[in-house]
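WARN  no MSA supplied for this record, continuing single-sequence
INFO  ligand: iron/sulfur cluster
INFO  echoing inputs
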Amino acid sequence: MAQELLGQTLEQLRALAVSLGEPAYRGQQLYHALYAERQFDFAAMTNLPVALRARLSREACLTLPEPERRYVSADGTVRYLFRLERAAEAAVRIETVFMPEVSRQTLCISTQAGCAVNCQFCLTATLGLVRNLTAGEILGQVLCVLERHRAELRPQTNVVLMGQGEPLLNYEAVLTALRILLDPHGVGLSPRHVTLSTSGIVPGIERLGQEPVRPKLAVSLNATTNEQRSRIMPINRKYPLEQLLDACRRYPLRPWERLTFEYVLLGGYNDTAADARRLAKLVGQLKCKVNLIPWNPGTLPFERPTPERVEQFQRILTAKGVLATVRHSRGQDVMAACGQLASLEVIPPPAPASTR
Ligand code: SF4
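INFO  complex generated
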């Protein structure tokens, strides 16, 4: 059976070259063609000798994910629905979102098909965990989407690991993919432009902090007491707020780096002035920013916070010296916004502003 090369590291490709009787540097050339140039056809890898290209075409393969559907939002956001197949396994569907902006593009990628963490405000949770993605499947989303938009790409690419799945529960594959994404000789993204978002898997946060190559870290907080958090994020029973914030305090930030706390504002649940004051107290001593995310309309039983509540929440945080921004979700009309990724093929009409 042909060997899959997508997701292989530099060391693995060098070893492959040697196993084929070639010098190791041929593996390096293959790595460059694949990840830096996004060249997915062996025949077109003109930096390799013809005989090697022919042999790779026979004995190896590069399987980019193929979009099954593509939904384009009125705001330019594109939600891709990928169908991934592996021998002897049922196909799974995952999603990737492409968000073009004036001077950059942001890709939101999945790290698992479905998710086991069961956050109550997230549509992905309704799928349960289907399976972990491989490093090649994680990387493949970035390569495929960048390639499809090649002509319109802006100089800066941001990647956020905020699609389906909890990245720190698929640690090895996620880190392998990240090392290739962040390698200047690989995909070449800046660690300042790549963010891993976690629901608060404390051992994973501690492990990530020890990695020489790592993205920025975002923690999905969403509540200010254990009782409130455990109700919407059952993972809090395993890693309660004290433990999570302690891991955040000990996280070794690089000089240029801040932690991000994501806070999904659920109308009437966690969006009061008292919540904002408690949040400021919890994170005020950390080098961080808070990203407020007004909850997106969907089929789950929560309400969208009113604009006044969002503004008040941000104002209180700012007054207490906490940097706080409001994330205006994109692609809501194609179910591409935060918390909406659940491989839905039926697109509901946009919900009225007062509900979600
Ligand atoms: S918010 Fe993230 S961690 Fe929580 S259920 Fe959804 S995908 Fe999983």
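The pocket of iron/sulfur cluster is lined by residues 115, 117-119, 122, 124-125, 164-166, 199 (CB under 6 Å).
INFO  checksum written, moving to next record
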